[in-house]
Amino acid sequence: PGTGRLLGGFLQYRGDVSEGIANLGLQRIKDTVQANWGSVFKMAVSHQSPLHSMEQNGLEPTERSLTMLSNTSAVAGLMVNIRTAARKLYNKRAFWHHYCGHHGGDEEGQFNEAEEDVRAFEEMYKEATI
């Protein structure tokens, strides 16, 4: 990741890939990326060919592919941005009619509770970087 610390993830290899090569790839990530390696990082190897044809995108066909999903502490910054934007809309009561009133929507207290839940998530991600 560009910012933050890698907290966990999943590597999915497909096609003509041996488990030894896959393990080397994971080791390379561990050697080069700042990460909390006590966290969960899983890997799977499927010997089936990649599912989608790369020719659709103007690329040469391939016998193997790799997909990586990861969770980083950089998400904390995104949560701060979303919470700040949501608070501004809430203070203006923008789109309030979609959430409360005759539509049987949420109560005002639920918005405050949701904001506190997001704050707790932010803190967990910040603590993970220490």
Q: Order of SSEs, N→C?
A: EHEEHHH
| N-C termini distance | 16 Å
Helix fraction by DSSP (H/I, runs of at least 4): 40-55%
Percentage of residues in DSSP E strands = 15-25%
Q: What is the residue-mean pLDDT, rounded to a whole number?
A: 80
Q: Runs with pLDDT <50, length 5+? A: none
Arrangement of strands in the largest sheet = 2-1-3
Q: Report the structural category.
A: alpha+beta
How would you describe the shape? elongated
Tell me the number of helical segments per DSSP (H or I, 4 or more residues long).
4
What oligomeric state do these chains adopt? single chain
Largest sheet: 3 strands, mixed
Annotation, overall tally of beta strands: 3
Which secondary structure elements does this structure contain, and how are they paired or packed?
Layout: E1 6-15, H1 19-32, E2 41-46, E3 64-72, H2 75-92, H3 96-99, H4 108-128
Parallel strand pairs: 1-2
Antiparallel strand pairs: 1-3
Helix pairs in contact: 2-4
